[in-house]
């Protein structure tokens, strides 16, 4: 049932008051990707989805946007694997266009990799078999688990942050939840409005890696029914 969008830029419904949060744990370099096209990006095909259905490959794909280009060795240090292992998984991801080598950087022995610009979506709808739907759901769940880990790391980082840092980030970070009742058509309109917001306000921020004062940041937007198709609470 679920459809998830992943783009190299980054993409609940409670009370309707935004709550200030705390500074994030530091990352190395921000996203180097190009702006994604407005609207839902292309859905992964069956072969690409099967290639992605590995927790380490999902983690690699999840790390590259926030850390910037990385070598297999550096990825190995981050995820606790050998460079041979991360190199193999990078090559598998590259076969399906999910990552690519950075042109003009590195050597034949030490190649640099980045997330392929643009994005993709993963949906369990329209799959021709229960196994395909389960694969799509498993990949989506792993992406969401990793996203939750980053949110919790962000919250925990505030415990050791100084007051100046907390004040600097107080007005620019928020977690927002809103529960409403809406028809599918109204929900669709909200999602389409969000796509327009991305094109106008988020996509133009691409390519700012290394800019003075710029840090990697992440934006979440979730819109989903809170009941199953029979009307039972999830």
UniProtKB/TrEMBL annotation:
<dbReference type="InterPro" id="IPR036390">
    <property type="entry name" value="WH_DNA-bd_sf"/>
</dbReference>
<keyword id="KW-0804">Transcription</keyword>
<dbReference type="InterPro" id="IPR011991">
    <property type="entry name" value="ArsR-like_HTH"/>
</dbReference>
<dbReference type="InterPro" id="IPR036388">
    <property type="entry name" value="WH-like_DNA-bd_sf"/>
</dbReference>
<keyword id="KW-0238">DNA-binding</keyword>
<protein>
    <recommendedName>
        <fullName>HTH arsR-type domain-containing protein</fullName>
    </recommendedName>
</protein>
<dbReference type="GO" id="GO:0003700">
    <property type="term" value="F:DNA-binding transcription factor activity"/>
</dbReference>
<dbReference type="Pfam" id="PF12840">
    <property type="entry name" value="HTH_20"/>
</dbReference>
<feature type="region of interest" description="Disordered">
    <location>
        <begin position="1"/>
        <end position="44"/>
    </location>
</feature>
<dbReference type="InterPro" id="IPR001845">
    <property type="entry name" value="HTH_ArsR_DNA-bd_dom"/>
</dbReference>
<dbReference type="GO" id="GO:0003677">
    <property type="term" value="F:DNA binding"/>
</dbReference>
<keyword id="KW-0805">Transcription regulation</keyword>
<feature type="domain" description="HTH arsR-type">
    <location>
        <begin position="47"/>
        <end position="160"/>
    </location>
</feature>
<dbReference type="InterPro" id="IPR051081">
    <property type="entry name" value="HTH_MetalResp_TranReg"/>
</dbReference>
């Amino acid at each position: 049932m679920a459809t998830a969008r992943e783009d190299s830029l980054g993409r609940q419904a409670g009370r309707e008051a935004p709550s200030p949060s705390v500074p994030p744990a530091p990352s190395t370099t921000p996203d180097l990707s190009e702006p994604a096209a407005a609207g839902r990006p292309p859905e992964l095909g069956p072969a690409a989805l099967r290639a992605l259905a590995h927790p380490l490959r999902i983690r690699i794909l999840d790390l590259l946007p926030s850390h910037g280009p990385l070598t297999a060795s550096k990825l190995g240090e981050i995820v606790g694997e050998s460079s041979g292992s991360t190199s193999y998984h990078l090559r598998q991801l590259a076969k399906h266009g999910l990552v690519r080598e950075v042109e003009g950087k590195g050597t034949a022995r030490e190649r640099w990799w980045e997330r392929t610009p643009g994005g993709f979506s993963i949906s369990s709808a329209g799959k021709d078999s229960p196994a395909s739907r389960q694969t799509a759901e498993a990949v989506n769940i792993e992406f969401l688990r990793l996203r939750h880990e980053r949110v919790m790391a962000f919250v925990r980082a505030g415990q050791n942050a100084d007051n100046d840092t907390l004040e600097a980030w107080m007005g620019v970070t928020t977690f927002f939840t809103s529960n409403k009742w809406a028809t599918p058509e109204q929900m669709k309109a909200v999602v389409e409005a969000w796509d327009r917001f991305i094109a106008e306000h988020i996509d133009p921020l691409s390519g700012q890696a290394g800019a003075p004062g710029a840090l990697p940041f992440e934006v979440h937007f979730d819109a989903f029914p809170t009941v199953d198709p029979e009307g039972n609470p999830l």
